[in-house]
Design goal:
The chain is mainly beta. Among the domains are: 56 residues; 129 residues. Helix content is 0%, strand content 37%. The strands form seven sheets. Strands 21, 22, 23, 24, 25, 26, 27, 28, 29 and 30 form a ten-stranded antiparallel sheet that branches.
């Protein structure tokens, strides 16, 4: 049996108690506390309900909605939704659930629309970020990250092939490094070291060298054009196994010069050259025709090495005037005290009385060789063209001289 007291309504156990009728308004005055120690069923509300025994959702004086958070501070005033509590309650999160053939979104809007949002595509399982209305970054189902591309094909893929330029910047007040790591071992890094004169440093790991691969060769660097710095700091070009500080398998072109054994002017090698030239006999009033007139030279720095072969054909016009050989490839050094003597062999020549040998001489600042005969008393006499007798007079001459 139900009881009615001044301050209580006590229904009989199992009895349904109805307060008011359809269309009635029940007013609870200010200051009244509704206390519930049981379960209220079939309760409908257009607001937020909480059937738990502690506060789960709070709307504070700043109209911020707090879920499992009532009094936390230090988070600023810009967040209109705060989930979780920093002092208790365990982990916290926000979950957006859709069917597996739909998209989930988390958006950022303004008075012009929704220019930015996160989108997870459950069909292809990728996550993308939209900025200013366009896709800016995507993480595909394999974990590849694409920036400004919708089809990343490496772990990090920047750009889509149609942009004019792409940049990746590492900025700090200290060292900047990009490190390459194996499964558990440091392999290499490239970086700029503020404490080391801002040099760009490419550093290999322990017991490893550095390879440069060109011309689309295999990444291992074992192709036809390898460039490698080994663990001793030796640089190999065209070889993977350099044995010296610089080991080149192939040809080298140098524009300028090379210092050898020091940096002084005496150590400077600025020229190496090989070639040919056409030597000629020269004698006032004489004329010469040849079956052969050949000259080759090698120039190393200022030192010129020459080899000459001349053979007359027998139809020459000869005189009693001195004879020389002209057409040297380089003018001799302009040093008056410097005379270069060259070994000379002349066949079918009439030596003067007392002469025992022949030689060539190059004086200073000339492009010609004077021919001389000498005797036992060391006297020298210029050779004359009419001493070249016979139908096939020959001169074979070799030696070196300093060029200007």
């Amino acid at each position: 049996m139900s009881q009615v007291e001044v301050d209580k309504i006590i229904p009989q156990s199992g009895t349904t108690l109805t307060i008011g009728d359809s269309g009635d308004t029940i007013t609870i005055p200010s200051g009244v506390t509704l206390s519930n120690s049981g379960i209220i069923t079939n309760f409908e509300s257009t607001g937020i309900d909480d059937n738990a025994t502690s506060t789960a959702i709070t709307i504070d004086s700043g109209d911020r909605v707090r879920i499992n958070n009532t009094t936390s501070t230090g988070h600023g005033s810009v967040y209109n939704l705060i989930v979780g509590n920093e002092s208790s309650g365990g982990d916290a999160g926000v979950l957006v659930v859709t069917p597996n053939n739909e998209n989930a979104y988390y958006g950022f809007g303004d008075d012009g629309g929704v220019p930015g949002y996160l989108n997870y595509n459950h069909i292809s399982n990728f996550l993308r970020t939209y900025v200013n209305g366009s896709e800016a970054m995507r993480i595909d189902s394999s974990g590849k990250v694409g920036i400004n591309t919708t089809s990343p094909n490496t772990t990090l893929h920047v750009g889509n092939g149609t942009d004019t330029s792409e940049y990746i910047t590492l900025q700090s007040s200290d060292d900047k490094r990009l490190t390459f790591q194996g499964a558990s071992v440091y392999r290499a890094e490239i970086g700029v070291y503020e404490s080391n004169h801002n040099d760009l440093v490419l550093r290999a790991g322990s017991s490893a060298g550095i390879r440069f691969v060109t011309n689309n060769e295999n990444f291992s660097g074992n192709g036809a054009n390898p460039i490698r710095i080994n663990t001793l700091g030796y640089l190999g070009i065209g070889t993977n196994s350099p044995s010296q500080r610089l080991d080149v398998d192939g040809s080298i072109e140098v524009s300028g010069g090379i210092y050898i054994g020091g940096t002084g002017s005496a150590n400077y090698l600025d020229d190496y050259e090989e070639g040919t030239f056409t030597p000629q006999f020269s004698s006032t009033g004489a004329s010469f025709t040849y079956t052969a007139a050949k000259g080759v030279y090698t120039k190393i720095g200022r030192q010129v090495c020459i080899n000459i072969y001349l053979q007359l054909d027998g139809s020459q016009t000869l005189t009693a005037n001195n004879v020389s050989i002209t057409g040297l490839p380089f003018t001799s050094a302009n040093i008056s005290q410097l005379i270069s003597s060259l070994a000379c062999e002349i066949r079918l020549v009439n030596l003067s009385t007392g002469a025992t040998s022949l030689f060539g001489r190059i004086d200073a600042n000339v492009t010609s060789i004077g021919l001389f005969e000498s005797g036992d008393n060391y006297a020298t006499t210029s050779l004359r063209s009419n001493q070249l007798s016979g139908s096939s007079g020959q001169v074979i001459l070799s030696g070196t001289y300093p060029a200007a």
